[in-house]
Design a protein that fits this description.
Blueprint: H1 2-17, E1 21-22, E2 39-42, E3 53-56, E4 59-62, E5 74-76, E6 83-90, E7 96-105, E8 112-120, E9 126-132, E10 144-151, E11 156-163, E12 171-182, H2 192-218
Antiparallel strand pairs: 1-12, 2-4, 3-6, 4-5, 5-12, 6-11, 7-10, 7-12, 8-9, 8-11
Helix pairs in contact: 1-2
Length: 219
Amino acid sequence: MNHILKIVAAAAIAGAASGASAVTLVNGSFEAGSLSAPFETATAGSSAITGWTVGGFGVDYVGSYWMASDGVRSVDLSGLNAGSVSQAFATTIGSNYTVTFDLSGNPDGGVGTRTAIVSIDGSLPSIKSYVVAPSNSRESMNWQTYSYDFTAFTTTSRLVFASADYTPFGPALDNVSVIDNGGGAGSTVPEPATWAMLMIGFGMVGMTVRSRRTAVVAA
């Protein structure tokens, strides 16, 4: 019976894990869009980056100027000054989400900290810092992966990445993705297939118990 219980437990764990799913985010790696190589400064309201809205003082849409984290394009969140990019996407009220993204820093500004602010409507923003080291260069950007968690309060949420550096040498952004983790720890509802496995497992446990009782009575 212990073996059967282990199978049932594994099914429950698998069902909970399957609750996480990827969210459709348009152009998360900034590969689609118009670009004048090696980079182009996109001003507020620009549609140069497919799926994203440019704000603030604009951003640099970077192509061959430096090595991207994913693909060949990325964004410097400071154009001539601190800028931003944002995108709205469908969310489920009460669901928990994890945003992952890669950060580096414009190496032309020398060593030092580059600071990005990531936020979602109705949630507290998060400050993410990246330190440009002497080893950073256009050929070796030393990208690092960061994450940001939020709970959706509306059916449409707007994700915003903004520079906190009021210089032309801001934080570099690439490889953005969003995962829907469901309704929070312990609240994931098993999918129908998982329920079927659980019911079969509990049925087998019941049959084993009854057969053992029958054997005892017979003895």
